[in-house]
Each structure stands twice: as C-alpha cells, then as structure tokens.
Amino acid sequence: MMRDSETRQALATQLDKPLRRRATAVVWRGSDVLLLRASASFYDVGDLRNFGLPGGGIEADELPKDTIVRELHEETELVATETQYLFNYFEDWSEDEKESADESDYRGQDHHVFWVEAKGEVVLAPEIADHVWWNKGSEVPVGRHVRPILDRL
User: Fold this and answer.
1) By C-alpha distance, which of 27, 11, 12 is closest to 71?
2) Is the separation of the CB atoms in 26 and 113 below 8 Å?
3) How does pLDDT run across 107-130, given as a tens digit for each residue?
4) Which pLDDT belongs to residue 101?
5) Where are the beta strands (DSSP E) in 1-146?
C-alpha cells in the first residue's frame, strides 16, 4: 500500500508527462462507422484484437485537420472531401490501464475528433490488419476511446 507521499510523487510524475495529440476521424457510411484494427507485424502495442477510429498522431508542424486528411488516406486510401471539427475527447492513461509500452511516455491522449465525408473504397495500408463498418449493435471488440466518442454524437 502506498503512503501519501508515494501517492503524491506518483501523481506528480504522471502529470509531468505530456498528452499525446491525436486527430481522430468519424467516417459514416449510412448508419455504420469505419473502424480499423492495427497489424501486429507493424505495431508491438496493445491489444491488437480491438478496433479503433481512424487517425493518428498530430505532427509538430501540422494542424489537426491536415492530420486527419493525411492519416485517413495513408491508412485506407479514402479521400476526405469534407471535414468538420466536432470536439476534443481526453483519454486518461492511468498506469494500470496502459495498453502498450508506447503509452508509458504519455499521461493520456487528446483526441481532436472530426466528422469526415470521404470518397473511394477502403484499401488497407500494410500497418492496418482489418476494417469493419460498425453499427454499434454488432459484437466487435473496440478500443477504449471508441464508445465514449461515438456516444457524444
């Protein structure tokens, strides 16, 4: 059991870590939303059985809107024809909930969530293992950020 001073030190250490900035796309086709699953051959992170919303890290010289257009095309070859910023969603990564070693460098993730209209057919990049058009009712294992983001829509 941690003493109060150990708890304060652990909290201070966690708060010193930066947030990972991520642009996150919500792409609808009818009543289904696009979810992607990472390929184990490219990522040694987390539970690769889970599907997540498309997107990725925002580069230092990039606007979130530009990131979502770039990431969506890189991951799926879909072309964003329209984007609209919706909201930010903060995902806390407490020590006992970290899904990967990569997450140890951050205290959480700040999702810049965009609604995206896209054209084309999904062609997966090598780092993406699978995709699904999900209607929220079917049994698909999803990452911890998916339901809270979609529940806000």
Assistant:
1) 27
2) yes
3) 889 999 999 999 999 999 999 999
4) 46
5) 19-29, 32-38, 55-57, 79-92, 108-119, 128-134
- pLDDT beneath 70, residues of the chain: 1-15, 41-48, 95-104
Integer Cα distance of 7 and 82 in angstroms: 46
Query: What is the spatial distance between Cα 136 and Cα 152, in angstroms, rounded to a whole number?
Result: 13
Q: Are 59 and 67 in contact (CB under 8 A)?
A: yes
Instruction: Give the closest residue to 121 by CA, choosing from 16, 19, 29.
Output: 29
Q: How far is CA 55 from CA 8, 37, 69, in A?
A: 34, 11, 9
Measured CA angle at 47 (ends 34, 18), to 5 deg: 85
**Count of C-beta atoms within a 10 Å radius of residue 136:** 13
Would you call 3 exposed, middle or buried from its count of C-beta atoms within 10 A (0-12, 13-18, 19+)?
exposed
- Rounded to a whole number of angstroms, the CA Rg of the chain reads 16
